[in-house]
Amino acid sequence: MATNVVTRDELIDRVSQLVPQLRKNAVRSDETRRLADDSIDALADAGVFRLRTPKRYGGLEADTRTLVDVAAELGRADGSLSWVASVYWIPTWMAGLFPDHVQDQVFGESDSRVCGTLSPTGMAAPAEGGIVVNGSWKFISGAHHSTWQEIVAVLITPDQQPLPVVAMVPMSQLGIIDDWHTSGLRGTGSVTTVAQDVFVPEGHYLPLPLILQGQSASERNADSPIYRSPLLPVASASSVGTLIGLGRAAREAFLERLPDRKITYTEYASQAEAPLTHHQVAAAVQHLDEAEFHAYRLAGQVDGKCADGAGWTVEERARARAGLGAVVSRTKQAVDILGGASGGSSIYEDVPIQRIQRDVHAAHLHALMHPETNAELYGRVLCGLPPNTLYI
Fold first, then answer.
1. What is the gyration radius of the CA atoms in the chain, in angstroms?
2. Cβ contacts of 268 within 8 Å, gap of 6 or more
């Protein structure tokens, strides 16, 4: 397969044209706890799900700066939709580390979408020609519309040592438990998936430590720049665009309502006239500016190192996690200011700022995005201590 060269600007333009339609669907997705099928179809037609697919399968092998820009535009329309697109990009990139014959199966379908996790909540047992996996995985965003899932299970090696392995499994072999009843990012449909005696053949699973280091078993992807960095910096840069988009959406939603709002029980006939509002808007926008700085610096570092094949120091890898946390933190500060300044009427479901704020709060709690956790890791490394996690 071959693909036409599509520029970053063309991709952003495609997505921008979809924003009005996607915004309308966002309310329905929030209510039904899963993405609207026509939103998924629209993104598939625009090429969003092929951004990290190898070029030989019709993909674009886009850099992470492009991911940030596309996810930000999606986030303006629907935080849940942007989140799922970002989640697909990461396991799709991981699939590119697997042997080429496995990629032929994963990407052989015309519209492959890969969801996944990094949590080793399954168990694997050796079997002839592979392993047998049992277990379940929570928070599987986009599972309803996926064709494959990347799972992590613990395999007991012949010397009785536990080894977490990453496996590529068709969604048709997994069950789904619809337990996604949450306050934020409701439209992501991040359900629990279940494996019961699922056989995974050799080659379809790799040791998690190798995946975290970005070590590839693929021959045909060996010269592709996007595979020259370890997983966590790549995943961090792939995730920040959703927060940037949610921040922009909050700014737009607040300013759109501003001309027609007064401050109840005061003499201000227009909220826009109040000095308090000026301070609130200025502070929020400055936080959003800081979030964009951290997002684009992170993407720039990942893309730069991928382009020249430079290695990553432990400090740089910790800073990638910290940069992700900084984007989340600054965006949450901004959205909380704007949400708090939106008045009592903003609690109605048809006012977008309340959904945006719920989505940002949900993202803030994600284990790999939590600002305090990531800052502590960065500070630990800066103080000369080894990282206390494999996820770096």
1. 21
2. 262, 274
- Reading the chain (392 residues) residue by residue, the pLDDT tens digits are 444 578 899 999 999 999 999 999 999 999 999 999 999 999 999 999 999 999 999 999 999 999 999 999 999 999 999 999 999 999 999 999 999 999 999 999 778 999 999 999 999 999 999 999 999 999 999 999 999 999 999 999 888 889 999 999 999 999 999 999 999 999 999 999 999 999 999 999 999 999 999 999 999 999 999 999 999 999 999 999 999 999 999 999 999 999 989 999 999 999 999 999 999 999 999 999 999 999 999 999 999 999 999 999 999 999 999 999 999 999 999 999 999 999 999 999 999 999 999 999 999 999 999 999 999 999 999 999 999 999 99
Residue 370, SS3 per DSSP? coil
According to DSSP, residue 386 is labeled P
Cβ atoms of 35 and 144 within 8 Å: the answer is yes
CA distances from 81 to 29, 71, 166, 386 (A): 9, 9, 25, 36
Is the pTM for the entire model greater than 0.70?
yes
C-alpha 112/C-alpha 110 separation (Å) is 6
Give the burial string for 355-372 (b: 16+ CB within 10 Å, else e). Answer: bbbbbbbbbbeeebbbbe
Domains of the chain and any CATH numbers = 8-106 (1.10.540.10), 114-207 (2.40.110.10), 228-382 (1.20.140.10)
